[in-house]
Amino acid sequence: MQTVVLKDPPPSATNTGLLGDLRAFAHDRLPLLVQWAQADAPILRLRFAWATQYVISAPEYVQQVLQGNHRNYIKEQTFMRTVRLAAGPARENLFTSDGKDWLYRRRLMQPAFHRRCIEGYTQHMVNETSKLLQRWERLPAHSTIEVRSAMTDVTMEVISLCMLGTDLQRAHEQMKRIFKASSDFVISHSSALIKWPLAVPTPTNRRLNQAMEAITTLLTELIEQRRQALASGAEPEFLIDMLLLSHDEETGQGFSDDELRAELGGIIFAGHETTASALSWTFHLLAQNPAAEAQLHAEVDRVLQGRAPTLADLPQLQYTSQVFQEALRIYPPAWITSRQALNADQFGDYGLPAGAQVLLNIYGIHHNPAYWEQPEQFRPERFAPDQLSKQVKHTYLPFATGPRKCIGDTFAQTEAQIILAMIAQRYRLRRRDDTPVAADVGFIMQPKGGLPMQLEPR
Ligand code: HEM
Q: Which residues line ligand 1 (CB under 6 A)?
């Protein structure tokens, strides 16, 4: 397989000067992703200052990278070097690792995400949402709440209860600050032209180092508690137990404490920020689409008759699930992902050189009118069971695809269905005005500056 000449990206007014496409991409990502997805070529070459990257927007070629020829691709290394710094001294976890190391971790952790385990988690999801609703009930009527932060509270509680067997109540605000410092670091470090080592006290480095110290203390305590519980005969129940009890078959070695912290920190982060963000966008979309909101209310009222959902109700809450799926299409928290080619690869007429850095244009595919009629419109009907066969393959990628597909996809969808249904039973969430909500398109896509909304009891 040999490299052939790649087409240039479509001409862009900003694609001039030393920085190439970098300036435009740094400032106005979403329209560019949509534009690139609709360009004539399914794969485009971009120039980011002195680096070349390739953006792939054809669903079948995204599938080739993530599934068909996945062995030829590892996580994109420039970005991963930054993410690894934020993972602490062990550097690697399920999200950052590749090859044999990744496979070992994935096989070890997969059972914690089997349907049977998720069924056990639903009670935590219901309980934590009930607590949120009780807090809201104590507020004066029509109070304004910050939805993003409220969703983060619930999803963080749920993930720590399900994975660590403990709530983080005490350390909640601290955890939020830690994760904010880590994602700010990842964004600014990965896009910086000069990447200062962590020892250099730049403001973002300092905040990351402080966050690392704080999370080390916190997780060390949790790990020790769980280790002692297992030593005194507690049944292994949680993801943390699987990690504590694991031994590499070849070397007989278990995870070091640094490795455990990197894995647990990663799973708590990946397991709550994305879902919280997607739920926030869902409430924003519902407020803008009263007909869909009314249909959601009708469904939760009919199925639940005023009580909390149980596991058995979830299949009946079909429209609720469709609402979340459609929100994930319009605002995919993981709006892009990246890989690096080990060897050259071929995409139809176009060749990709060995070592190439590849961006997979999830947002652009979700907004391409060739696959989604009127893609900017919120239409949960697209995900009705009888419509699914009409979807073009690999055009819906909120959780990516292939062997590295999100390990928490069912967890996230179950949790979102429960939270959405329980809130919709009691409240309408309304914006105070119609000013557009901008997207903060960083590590994950979230409403910029949070999402204040008014609680209207139903
Ligand atoms: C709406 C919520 C979520 C979205 C949109 C989402 C999206 C994604 C995507 C797109 C990937 C693939 C990234 C890549 O390989 O390039 C991924 C991976 C991952 N996600 Fe999620 N995720 C969500 C929720 C969760 C939850 C709830 C958990 C854990 C409980 C989780 C844990 C992970 C982990 C550990 C990986 C790395 C898996 C691997 O490489 O084997 N995610 N997620």
A: 94-95, 106, 159, 267, 270-271, 274-275, 278, 333-334, 337, 398-400, 404, 406-408, 411-412
